[in-house]
């Protein structure tokens, strides 16, 4: 018979259950937060009734409808009766006003944007940075942002209009760089489209206007960013060094990388890492995953345009265009049908890129670890089989074991350890591993052709010895090749560390 009556719990039982429930609540809560972050990290928040301030007066401007909204602030279309025009008013959210560091970012954005005067950058007319109602008043651009326009577009942009558009953006970015300002958050949502035709039909009918310098950095005398180390930007449009939060690094190459991603999206109507989660995008950037290849999506992409994209999207900053102006010039040459400054892609480019990435060092380490651990096991197996089938003369088994212990402790054991260190990111292991690989290759070749070398009693004929040692020679040669190919990555990492 069942009963609803339950035995009373002791205090200890109650505490235990409470702790368990709390732990479960916290764990499930964290899991839910992470899941929601993955779902929402790139969403554009829409207007909400909370910020409907139509008719409200702010600094002499009359607010109208909400035209943009983000996690930091809300942008309104507003009337400027004094100058008889419409403006865009950016007002920080209430919770932002109460946070000193975020208000400092708002002030920085105002100062940076007000210092820039270029046709490709939205001008700032007026700012109010103190008091209860801080704001930034800038020009009102009546067109959509590039992200909205792309969402509405029925197909990707043709190559020439896309190149012309990004060339204009690159010119604006170069202007900012020339004045010590880096944007660091170039994405479609931060590119407003100003119509140059009464009825715009294509991207050529719009002029890009760069906006939102909320993450902008300023450059020190040596050309490096003065901002502290932190992950900044939108992951879909982020450069690898931004994902690594390389504090003090020059952010100009990051802007060039983002311009390349914008060009990629214009001509393919998708981002290279479409549908990836926040965590996946950061992992791909940090690991130097495969470079985006536009011809996999659009095989008809002209070789010259592919070369420009490849130059922009190089993993390492030094391999990209040195200046945004250089990118703009190359795009102008492409549009004019002239030869671009970067060479066309070659079949060997992928191999060369891989050789420069830290992954090549890790691969060389894994190869060495597997090869030398496997060789020790193979030596033990060969010695055991030789003893079982009587190839080892009486009294020779102990000598075989001693020979194997000597070879394992002097050669293969240390090499396996060096490989393990290299595979787990210990860069110091590279040079010892490379030098010992050459020594071991010489020893293995000599052992294969020599008359009196360890383990000769395991092979009944000279042919059987050569046959077995040929595998060892081939594997040793492969190890040398892998480690030579990792040389560019090791040099680059060493150079970066000294800097």
TrEMBL record:
<dbReference type="InterPro" id="IPR000719">
    <property type="entry name" value="Prot_kinase_dom"/>
</dbReference>
<dbReference type="Pfam" id="PF00069">
    <property type="entry name" value="Pkinase"/>
</dbReference>
<feature type="transmembrane region" description="Helical">
    <location>
        <begin position="367"/>
        <end position="389"/>
    </location>
</feature>
<keyword id="KW-0472">Membrane</keyword>
<dbReference type="InterPro" id="IPR011009">
    <property type="entry name" value="Kinase-like_dom_sf"/>
</dbReference>
<feature type="transmembrane region" description="Helical">
    <location>
        <begin position="430"/>
        <end position="449"/>
    </location>
</feature>
<feature type="transmembrane region" description="Helical">
    <location>
        <begin position="469"/>
        <end position="490"/>
    </location>
</feature>
<feature type="binding site">
    <location>
        <position position="90"/>
    </location>
    <ligand>
        <name>ATP</name>
    </ligand>
</feature>
<keyword id="KW-0808">Transferase</keyword>
<keyword id="KW-0067">ATP-binding</keyword>
<protein>
    <submittedName>
        <fullName>Serine/threonine-protein kinase PrkC</fullName>
        <ecNumber>2.7.11.1</ecNumber>
    </submittedName>
</protein>
<keyword id="KW-0812">Transmembrane</keyword>
<feature type="domain" description="Protein kinase">
    <location>
        <begin position="61"/>
        <end position="335"/>
    </location>
</feature>
<keyword id="KW-0547">Nucleotide-binding</keyword>
<feature type="compositionally biased region" description="Low complexity">
    <location>
        <begin position="1"/>
        <end position="13"/>
    </location>
</feature>
<dbReference type="InterPro" id="IPR008271">
    <property type="entry name" value="Ser/Thr_kinase_AS"/>
</dbReference>
<dbReference type="GO" id="GO:0005524">
    <property type="term" value="F:ATP binding"/>
</dbReference>
<dbReference type="GO" id="GO:0004674">
    <property type="term" value="F:protein serine/threonine kinase activity"/>
</dbReference>
<keyword id="KW-1133">Transmembrane helix</keyword>
<dbReference type="InterPro" id="IPR017441">
    <property type="entry name" value="Protein_kinase_ATP_BS"/>
</dbReference>
<keyword id="KW-0418">Kinase</keyword>
<feature type="region of interest" description="Disordered">
    <location>
        <begin position="1"/>
        <end position="25"/>
    </location>
</feature>
